[in-house]
Amino acid sequence: MTQPLFITFEGPEGAGKTSVLQALIAELKPLLGDDLVTTREPGGNPISEAIRAILQPEEDNGMDDRTEALLYTAARRQHLVSVVLPALAAGKIVISDRYVDSSLAYQGGGRGLGVDNIWQINQFAIDGLMPDLTIYFDVPAEVGLARVMANRQGKIDRLDKEDLSFHKKVRETYLSLQSDFSDRIKIIDATQPLTEVIAATRTLLFEIMATRKESL
Fold first, then answer.
1. Which superfamily, per CATH, for 5-214?
2. CB count, 10 Å around CB of 5?
3. pLDDT digits (tens, 9 = 90+) for 39-69
């Protein structure tokens, strides 16, 4: 069995992390084949995708903030047992677009529910599983929202429509988490041109994959 890796991509709205992930999948898949599993939160399996549809309607559905936090946590648990844990048990590299840090930033910081409170409810869901590496794509809230409005294809969901103060709190929380857990969370300046962001991300991924290979 090979050494498994769990890697997560994080960032505020408009940071471009999904675009970076898609570009790097095209590079990594030919190299890693079935050894690479890419997924997203909320989603990645039918139950979590159904929860995603409730969480991300185009219009405000009146959802209570604590209900929102609990639904994200429920989707996360199902995602873990359906996708992440089986892949890791098989020695694969799992890259997820968002994980628990998103809840800490968006519900803990943005919604004002408290990072510690959100951390506590997620402990039951994740059962101690944290990423080996988290890549945080940082961009000022004003820049990120401008990108969303200019470039987003399809619907703009209710998180995108939150006011600027919400998105500033999300970013502040992410930066605080990165400072507290700098060994795990690596920061990339996402205001750079996309090619440079991709290159910086590629470097981080290849570094940790090289470490994985050396440990075999």
1. P-loop containing nucleotide triphosphate hydrolases (3.40.50.300)
2. 22
3. 999 999 999 999 999 998 877 788 999 999 9
155 is in an annotated binding site: no
pTM: 0.94
Buried b (16+ CB within 10 A) or exposed e, 151-175: eeeeeebbbbebeeebbbbbbebbb
18 annotated ligand-binding residue: yes
Strand order in the sheet with 93-97: 36-40, 93-97, 5-10, 133-138, 185-189
Please choose, from the candidates 46, 59, 169, 41, the residue with its C-alpha nearest in 3D space to the C-alpha of residue 95. 41
14 appears as a binding residue in the annotation: yes
190 labelled ligand-binding: no
d(CA 126, CA 78): 10
Q: Give domain limits for the chain.
A: 5-214
Annotated ligand binding at 16? The verdict is yes
Residue 112 among known ligand-binding residues: no
173 is in an annotated binding site: no
Nearest to 115 by CA among 64, 182, 172: 172
On whether 12 is known to bind a ligand per the annotation, the reply is: yes
Two structure tokens written together for 59? 């219009």
Q: How far apart are CA 48 and CA 92, in angstroms?
A: 21
